[in-house]
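Quick illustration, no need to memorize.
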Amino acid sequence: MTATGSPHNLAESPVALAMDWGGTWARAAVIDRQGQPLWQDRVANQPGALQDELVTAAGELLLEAKGNAGGRPIAGAGIALAGSIDAATNMLLSSPNLPALNGVTLPEVWEPMLNMPVWVGNDANLAALGECYYGAGQPMPPQNEPARTLVFVTFSTGVGAGVVDRGEIFMGAAGAAAEVGHMTIDLRADAPACACGNSGCLEAMASGTAIGRAAQARLANATPGAPLQLAYEANAAITGEDVFNAAERGDAVALEVVNDAVAAIIVGMGNVLNLFNPDVVVMGGGVTQGLMQLDLLGRIEDGMRRRAMSSGHRRFQLAPATLGDSQGMVGAASLVWSKTERPVAPDQPGLTP
């Protein structure tokens, strides 16, 4: 991708290399300080590839990105990955999408090759940082101030989250903080099981996977010819997207499932308010798109305020994620800026994230 705009001082303005490494593709970009990609490309993760093969292919893409920086100074490289990353060593401990990478420490491998610092972060944490620097955390009415404390929660196949406070990611002792998808919402003995090994987690009740599973379990009572029943007959499996589309058409089972998910989200997000006291809460992911399709974010925001423990916890804005498909790479670039430029707290003048 070619940048547009004034060439003034481009040669002196630093850029970041950014990578969003998912289960199917490693995507890399050169991103400027305004969050705009100047170049980007991607490489497929070959099925069955070993760790060395994956790391080599992705590293070559980063080298290509470095060569497309146009002679501008490069502040460093940021890498967004799903999974648990050790805060002290930067070792990837566990990746749900790329288990072959478990145990790799990418900065050790890539810093000598690139001749620049490399930082690695959990994708949900970096999505939060990107929203803080370039998205929903930027000044908006009525406060017209940047976010002091921003919580990003993605409701997708699973439920992940990240917290940014005064421009820095809240990591926790081992780098594993803000796993809000695994707070317990349902204590009943028959609460839905979660992939983490517990039951009744927010993820087990309000992820896209959980919504599809709950709808499929109720299809025995569906009206023949109803939208959700027809979707099931066509696909043999119900997705969260099927449920939201059927709910939009008035399907009774779908509406019941969505209402249950919304109730769980309100409890979970109310807990988020009381735990982190954010002034901006950002919701992303496919489930959030479905909730917006049904115009339900206002209902969720009202429910969160009812569960907030004090007036200080009720002073927040709920916003949908703004960065779309660029979320991972913009977040990875934001990690570079957070490491190379001392952030100014948002309640002080001069914040230019």
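The radius of gyration is 21 Å.
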